[in-house]
Amino acid sequence: MNNTMMSSLNQSKLAFTSLTNPIPRKHSSFSALKFSPLPIIQNSQKGLSFDKISQKPLHISSIESFSFSRKTQQEKPVTVCNAYEADRSSPLDINIELSDEHAAQKIKIGLYFATWWALNVVFNIYNKKVLNAFPYPWLTSTLSLACGSLMMLISWATRIADAPKTDFEFWKTLFPVAVAHTIGHVAATVSMSKVAVSFTHIIKSGEPAFSVLVSKFLLGETFPLPVYLSLLPIIGGCALSAATELNFNMTGFMGAMISNLAFVFRNIFSKKGMSGKSVSGMNYYACLSMLSLLILTPFAIAVEGPQMWAAGWQNALAQIGPNFVW
């Protein structure tokens, strides 16, 4: 690297010495230049020296010549040298300021989280009400996916949302993600039909622990010690909740645990297989729901079946009345 820098700087020196300098030497900035293997780049606005910001070695990325005009209209060649950090691929930005767009993006993401959380609460409450009157989680899971898929199809047909451009390769890559999503969705609904909503979501809050453990033992990823320590209160809280739950049910507990594991694999498959795909987040989830619906429907028919659903429908109407439809 030093040889490259010195040769580049020697070229610069030759360019400077070839200038005819009509200005007295005491006013010339060229005569004051002293080159070293690690030059100091001054920030004209802040007065900060580059060597105080970074001590990393520099590569000379390019040397370009351009000209400027003086009062005598004589063009003088000037050599421009661009420096990059050795482990970076873009020029250094000494002045970094957060724009208003960045702050607005943070607020937007925060609103997304708040909206998702609020709607998730409503979904869980109504889902539990339905399961209390109509205890068929396989059909309930199927209808949830069907409603979401129908809403997106209507949005695409009415141009409320732009339909995604997909091909066979996209659906092939999406298939394992949809399988994991289907298992996790059904398992969570089965758990919710057997135990309280609060207990199901306390167990499901252990998903970060599953994510770290699966990534560690199956994918070989390593995490810093604070990450592992942060899992202790999560695991301890789930264990304490399971041990002290008054209406503990093994089916409900195992359903929540299976849901955690399935969603972890869903995220892993999604990250590995769908990277680089030009499908927006909303359309991606819509395609995922539609494919999951196709996977789940035959299993729901096999496990519960139309006869059980018809009998349960009559019982629900007898207990609650027409409001059950709402």
UniProtKB/TrEMBL annotation:
It is a multi-pass membrane protein. Keywords: Membrane, Transmembrane, Transmembrane helix. Its main location: membrane. Pfam families: TPT. It is found in: Membrane. The chain crosses the membrane at residues 109-126, 138-157, 250-269, 281-303. It comes from the Eukaryota. Residues 108-315 form the Sugar phosphate transporter domain. One of its GO terms (cellular component) is membrane. This is Sugar phosphate transporter domain-containing protein.
